[in-house]
Amino acid sequence: MRPISVDLQTVQQMRSPQARVSVRVEARGQNPAAPALAWQEVMGNAGQTLFAPVSAVGLADGRILKFTANLTDRIEQHLIAEPSAAASWSAPTTTTVRSHGALSLCALRYAASSIRLFYIHAANGNVYTIHSADNGVTWGNPVVVYGGGDAASDLVIAYQPALPDGPWFVGFSTYNGGTGNYTACFGYYGGTTWVTHAYAEPGWRAAGIYPYGAAQRVLVFRQQERGAARLRALDKTGSVYSAPRELDQTQAGLFGLGLAYFRFYQLPEFACMLGVAGEYAAGGDAYVGVCGLFEAGELLADEPIMLPAIAALDEQPPAALCAAGPDVYLAGDTLVYRGVAQPTPDAVLTPIRYRYDDHTLELEFPGGIPPLQVGQILEVERSLRWGEQGGSESLRAYVLRVERGSDRVIVWAVDPVGFLGVARCRRPSILNNGSAAGCAQVMRRLCARFGLAAGVDDSGLHSAPVLPITLQPAESLLGAAYRVRSQTSLYLVPANDGAFALTLINPPHSDVSGDYADTPHRYGPGALPVIRAQEIADLRRLAFAYILGTYSTDPEDGAALAMAAGPVLPNTRPIAYSLTNQRYNSAARVTAAASAEAARQYTLAVDAVVEAPANLALELYDVVEITEPALGWAARRFRLHRIVERWERGRLVQTLYLGSGQ
């Protein structure tokens, strides 16, 4: 039950309150923290085979400083006067910063004209930093950050004065020629000296430093020709690293695909982090994309948006990321892509009508409204008033389709659950290799693939059983969500605070918000009004779960069997739902699957349909109690399975599809 104001509760008791709907537009990036961008090529690099170390920073006036190095005698900076023009990149103003080579570079502008450049000296394997207070016109003397002599690659940095041990944080990878292993090292500068600590597990390389949480959080990556290639996050306190949390992993060689690298860059202008990601095909090409990080109960990574025209290697990123003005640039020593900031209309739009059903909104506007674009988020505010009292609630939906005509504009959009149904996994991704703490963690990773945050309203879901699962190429993420919850009863619903996000619920267990504790909505005399009601009896419903789990493909190895009852009508033979799955290879898994499937069947059967004025506190899977003397209902209890909400000619009406109160 969505919390609403006392005024709105009072108004909803009226049979015909004044209703109004308004729509605002907000831009959405590839995840909740990222800016809304459209990527386009500025300069290509077809056929390039050698890639120089590169870094870039955007200046306050919209220009870009790009840094490159060779392995012998120079680190250079290139001033790009017009970043959107290819000519500025092909003929920049170039100056030499240092007269020696570098293995890796990373720079950050952290104040109006202050830049700090870090580099790994090619001759001695040490890490240094230099500082400029005038946008790169002059540079100070080098300061040793790490003097171990074995730094080799993967230089990453972050700046955050609010974090302990800050304000500067650095990471890089060392290389042991004897073992052939890389080791990630991370350090910090607290105002007097630089301190670095190795991540003890060999084979992991530095991938980034996330500076926007409450603690120093580092990212490491491991490329594997066999086994899982992984991106993971760890909290770092002093020299101590926490247990890892897996953000992304793909089994090397699965479907011929693999992960090549991740390198994340801080974009202070947007208070977010985007990364360069590489993927490759066995015996084929490597491709580059842009991915992002965001927090939703834990740090998560979205699936990279690939830029397939880029020639690349499968060892090191061929480009870096920086912000310049409202745009973001992916800049290599040759290659340049521009992420063009997407405009957002400021106007408040009023639809002629709308219909919201099955997680999809259809809105009709008069012709001549500001252009709406696929990929934008619509904030749909529904208001109810009666005299001086009233209130409003919002929902958000992602624009899927726009039909722009001379006299009207029709827009189709989906809420977060509908968006998950549209989303398709591009490459195989291991959501759970058997080490996940519970169902909630796996579901969060699944939703994060398309940049969706997922809250958890029942703390028991954090430890609820879940099977190992790998997303398949082109698999629907909503379909995959059914696989994730095959061992646990839960529902996915849009977040009830109006955000474009999801919530995992398991009513009546609601120990986080209390919103899903099955407090009933009451309809009928003296309560919320009813326009009409009807009772439904229909044999055509799944009413019996029959789950068979086999121990192997050999029938003689035996099996486990469990049955569970769904919504059965009296004096009828139940219609069975049968499922045989080799993954359910234990009695416990079979029993859990039967229970979860029977619970799902209760969400499919419809026992009553009620039409009523809009109740903006109502959410999917809430409990309602209806008194309707004509049907003999006295506080009859139902669970809400579907809401059809319609607004037209000033009336906001809901049709409720109701099932068993379980």
List keywords for this structure.
Neuraminidase; 662 residues; Phage tail protein beta-alpha-beta fold; 46 strands; single chain; mainly beta; 5-stranded antiparallel sheet; 12-stranded mixed sheet; globular
SSE map:
Elements: H1 6-11, E1 18-26, E2 37-43, E3 54-58, E4 64-69, E5 75-80, H2 86-90, E6 93-98, E7 102-109, E8 115-121, E9 127-132, E10 143-146, E11 151-159, E12 168-176, E13 181-189, E14 194-198, E15 205-210, E16 216-222, E17 228-237, E18 240-241, E19 245-251, E20 257-267, E21 272-281, E22 286-295, E23 299-301, E24 305-307, E25 319-324, E26 327-332, E27 336-341, E28 353-357, E29 360-366, E30 377-386, E31 389-404, E32 408-414, H3 416-422, E33 429-432, H4 439-448, E34 454-456, E35 469-471, H5 477-484, E36 491-494, E37 502-505, E38 521-523, E39 532-535, E40 542-550, E41 559-565, E42 575-581, H6 587-602, E43 608-613, E44 623-628, E45 633-648, E46 651-659
Helix pairs in contact: 4-5
Task: Indicate the CATH architecture of the domain at 37-341.
Answer: 6 Propeller
Major sheet size, sense and barrel closure = 12 strands, mixed
Tally of individual helices: 6
CATH homologous superfamily of the domain at 37-341? Fucose-specific lectin
Give the number of DSSP strands. Answer: 46
Question: What's the CATH class label of the domain at 37-341?
Answer: Mainly Beta
Radius of gyration: 28 Å
Whole-number average pLDDT?
A: 89
> Could you please say which CATH topology of the domain at 37-341 applies here?
Neuraminidase
Work out the helicity level.
Answer: under 10%
Strand content: over 45%
Low-confidence stretches: none
Summing up helix and strand content along with how strands pair, one would put the structural category as mainly beta
Alpha-carbon distance between the two ends: 16 Å
Q: Which shape, going by the Cα principal axes?
A: globular
